[in-house]
Amino acid sequence: MPRPYAGPIIDAHHHLWDLRLGRHPWLAPDKAERGGLGSLDAIRRDYLPADYRRDIRGEPVVASVHVEAGWQAGDCLGETAWLDGLDKAGGVAARYVAHVPLASPEAETLIDRQAQHPRVVGIRDIVSWHPDPARSFAARGDMMDDPAWRRGLARLGHHGLCFDLLVQPHQLGDAARLAADFPDQLFVLDHCGSPIDRDEEGMALWRRGLAALARQPNTVIKISDLVAYDHGWTLQSLGAVIDACLEGFGAARAMFASDFPVACLHARPGDIFTSFKVLTAALSPDEQAALFLETARRVYRIGDASPAALPPR
């Protein structure tokens, strides 16, 4: 009989912010929706460790990974410094995926400085682009081919930093070529590859691109924020996405993540965890442990995932 996972969890992707600081311009009241997420009004509020702990109440989360949250451009080190001042009891933000603008002339210096931090284990520089500005995060669609950007990416290998990759489905083929060009760089695909177009043609495009990227052995996937582009979701619709991700990557190269608070735009916090556990109940215990704990522990170097053992990596 299928048994939902009940063991310890590493939440491999969430965000924190304090809007009183004025450092997250994309969440300002006068900004329109971004990335096809719909109205952002529900998350235009402070989201701090106490809020995160409230949303995971009752779940055995032993550590979490904070992913850069659109901090003010030109001050990527400021977000890292701000995170250091927060109460991270219980393993909250045990590791950071920080931001560096890889095409910047200062990218090498910024990467070196981020890498000196004991909690920074990865970098994200969003390249997700769509011809419709309301569906884009990035300003350009050619960043993955930009020579300056690629030079910045190459610097990550000097420090063993992974790269979190946020792209649109039509960019997954380019992402696969990027991974092939940098075979020693570990790439982490965020949010299932963003299946944004939910019609039959759009989902087929996503599945083809996902399979192409999964063929690159230096890639792993976060099965995270399943509701971002599935606003009228059902267990069946979420399950189809999870199944496609696992078919391509397997549990040993996949990890669960909440994407709180963004996921709360379209689901209650408890639903995120419960639905995922229900939909993966048929996996073997080893596969479940990989998905909820071991892959994230390995990729983000979280040691034994015991809060008492953090933050050394």
UniProtKB/TrEMBL annotation:
Record-stated family: Belongs to the metallo-dependent hydrolases superfamily.
Gene3D superfamilies in the record: Metal-dependent hydrolases
One family name in Pfam for this protein: Amidohydro_2
Domain of life, source organism: Bacteria
Keywords: Hydrolase
Name under which the protein is recorded: TIM-barrel fold metal-dependent hydrolase
PANTHER family membership: AMIDOHYDROLASE, BLL3371 PROTEIN
GO function terms (MF aspect): hydrolase activity
Gene source species: Labrys monachus
Domain Amidohydrolase-related: from-to ranges: 10-302
Signal sequence bounds: none
Residue ranges crossing the lipid bilayer per the database entry: none
